[in-house]
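Board notes (copied after class):
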Amino acid sequence: MSDEDLDQDAMAAAWGAALDDTDEVDEEALDGLDSDMAAQWAAMVGDPEDEGDGDQGGSERILNQDEIDNLLGFDLDERSLNDTSGLRAIINSAMVSYERLPMLEVVYDRLVRLLTTSLRNFTSDNVEVSLDTISSMRFGDYLNSIPLPAMLAVYRAVQWDNLALITIDSGLIYGIVDILLGGRSSPAVRVEGRPYTTIETTLVSRMVEVILKDSETAFQPLYPVKFELERLETNPRFATIARPANAAIVVRLRIDMEDRGGRVEILLPYSTLEPIRHLLLQGFMGEKFGRDPIWEGHLANEIWNTEVPLDVVLDEFEVPLHKIMNLEVGQTLPMTCGANDPVQLRSSGINLSKGFVGQSNGKMALKLKGGLEQPIIPSEPLLADQG
């Protein structure tokens, strides 16, 4: 055996001893790491016997009522239809937001100003009308949220051929009745457990007619419409004008009269607003006309400077196809027109006028016989877009 073989055997023995030592160290380190991790998990989980009753494990936890309400998106203390979260937001995700109809808020801002003046004249008292919210919700949810007793006015939009709803709460009803009958000293007292009298119903119907008339005026710049009161109801189920799952817009108005007041809610189903949906999508009122004086002036200037081809047609006649195919240089084509007959002036295949061929300054010229034979009328789609 040579010296090289002895050196290799010694080196292999040294490597084997080193690997054995490393395995022992790694096993000791892993054992220590496992012990540390087990201690940490035990500290995090805790002892089930120290958690009180001992019925629950350390990894289990029961949600309280507030956490359940937050998860589901309900708030019993302060219910807001605009601020929804949790499962309620997922359920209502298919609802269309009124913010996609910018002109609707403009219309009802105008209604607030008109209604303030009209109700002051109606009651001869200081009345303040304010717009609280404009929100979207399902019709069935709205009927279930109406606080009773209340009075619901069903009215029809004649031009839209559909129905809408106005809800007046009891506080405003008794306040209006008290003011119109002369009571001005104390706040209106809410009377429970009795139906509304004929006098109360009549006075409320007069106030509803004032609201409808001002609503017509508010919609006038956007689209002329007439609102007609159909009936008054005290049971929300008798005022069903749409399916429970249908979407609707609810406009909430606050009416204050000194120390009296209440709410007026106007409900408009989306099916009612569908005929003017394209108008409500506008960003501003003037957009419905589609006019821009600067753009119109520029377009008119470009049109007047546009160059169009003109053709002077001396004569038209029919020739068999085989003669056309056999035409040769030097052949003569006889025309049916005379030397003094008028010729046709055309542009892009449209007959414009007639005239006589002559000569001016050494060049061929055309002397018009009259004006345009027919005006150039835009196509119907252009007229529809401009209207």
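Comment from the instructor: The longest strand covers residues 127-138. Residues 47-58, 76-82, 378-387 have pLDDT under 50 and may be disordered.
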